[in-house]
Amino acid sequence: MRTTDFDFELPVERIAQEPVEPRDAARLLVRDAADGGVLRHGQVRDLPDFLRAGDLLVVNDTRVLPARVMGRRATGGQVELLFLEPDAAFAHERGWRAMVRPAKKLKPGERVACKAGVIARMLERSSEDGTWAVTLEGADGEVRPMEEWLACCGVMPLPPYIQRPARAEDEERYQTVYAAEPGAVAAPTAGLHFTDRLFEGLAERGVGVARVTLHVGAGTFLPVTADRLQDHAMHAERYELSEECEQAVRRTREAGGRVIAVGTTSARVLESCRADDGEASAAGVRAGRGETRIFLHPGRGPAVCDGIFTNFHLPKSTLVMLVASFIGTAETLAMYRAAIEADYRFYSYGDATLVLR
């Protein structure tokens, strides 16, 4: 398949710049194969009505770090840093890998002054991708965990298609209500719709909830530059699937329930942890942790997930390709055209869709 097969016309005004309130008031477009693929419209708060007792939702409990840091060089020039993940090669200096602008002007050992007296010390620039190994410290060399320094001087790393600076309210709103494990530089955005009220409604319906962790990296925003899907190099992201989640999936399978991923990140974890000792249409998972580069697309569809609850994604992105791995390219594009015609809002702060196979 070709990347252009996943292109569609998306008016720029359809990309949400602000979230709706409350979270579960976002619109929901449902496509259930059991209904012949007929599209149904509702709100996220109606989600329990579209599920069955015994179904299992799997959410991603990663927590977004305030990973964007602004600083100033001794020369007065401004520097922007986006901290991505710990750098094992510089663990002895508590170094993290960071995207930096301007990357080429900085020098190893240079100190950049940031908010609240925090200093970003440049360690080494990668010759492969241009990122830097950077450590944060106090003006007097004080050492703390990176997460503490980021809490002092960082802001939420809103995606590039949100054309405004991050505000104080984004610290709460660009985070799921169940976020627990710090490490992401982008939110698992399908989960932004969930509220305590919605979880109560799901429990009353008899729908279970399990958790995985996948720390969303900046690679989620990278465009697909290869002409053919098989030539695309997928970015790596760190994940963990617990024994509790493994058991929850097993119980759901044994009871005849469906496993439904909340977001593309949860789907990637579940499919990365697929157990090979089940039917392809009803596979289980095994607990584990590591890095995944799994690329789900038509021709390499899901074996564990019976459905996905997710936001609307951008043209030619790996995310829209993942949705198409559930129902096919033509069906996905038809659903997206219907969503655009009905004024659904796209991407991180946008509306949602539920696709059931």
What is the topological layout?
Layout: E1 27-32, E2 39-43, E3 56-60, E4 62-64, E5 68-72, E6 78-86, E7 96-101, E8 111-114, E9 118-125, E10 132-138, H1 146-153, E11 154-155, H2 170-173, E12 181-184, H3 196-205, E13 208-215, E14 237-241, H4 243-254, E15 259-262, H5 264-272, E16 288-292, E17 307-311, H6 318-327, H7 329-341, E18 352-356
Parallel strand pairs: 1-18, 3-13, 3-15, 4-12, 15-17
Antiparallel strand pairs: 1-2, 5-6, 5-8, 5-11, 6-7, 7-10, 8-9, 9-10, 13-14, 14-16, 17-18
Helix pairs in contact: 6-7
CATH homologous superfamily grouping of the largest domain: QueA-like
* Physical arrangement of strands within the biggest beta sheet: 2-1-18-17-15-3-13-14-16
- Proportion of helical residues: 10-25%
Please indicate the percent range of residues in DSSP E strands (runs of 2 or more). 25-35%
Overall pLDDT: 94
| Pattern of helices and strands | EEEEEEEEEEHEHEHEEHEHEEHHE
| First-last Cα distance | 21 Å
Largest sheet: 9 strands, mixed
Number of domains: 2
Overview of this protein structure:
The protein has 357 residues and is α+β, with helices and mostly antiparallel strands. The chain folds into 2 domains: 3-64 and 171-356, QueA-like (3-Layer(aba) Sandwich), CATH 3.40.1780.10; 68-155, Beta Barrel (Thrombin, subunit H). Helix content is 18%, strand content 27%. It has 7 helices and 18 strands. It has helices at 146-153, 170-173, 196-205, 243-254, 264-272, 318-327, 329-341, and strands spanning 27-32, 39-43, 56-60, 62-64, 68-72, 78-86, 96-101, 111-114, 118-125, 132-138, 154-155, 181-184, 208-215, 237-241, 259-262, 288-292, 307-311, 352-356. The strands form 3 sheets. Strands 2-1-18-17-15-3-13-14-16 form a 9-stranded mixed beta sheet. Helix 6 packs across helix 7 (329-341). The two termini are 21 Å apart.
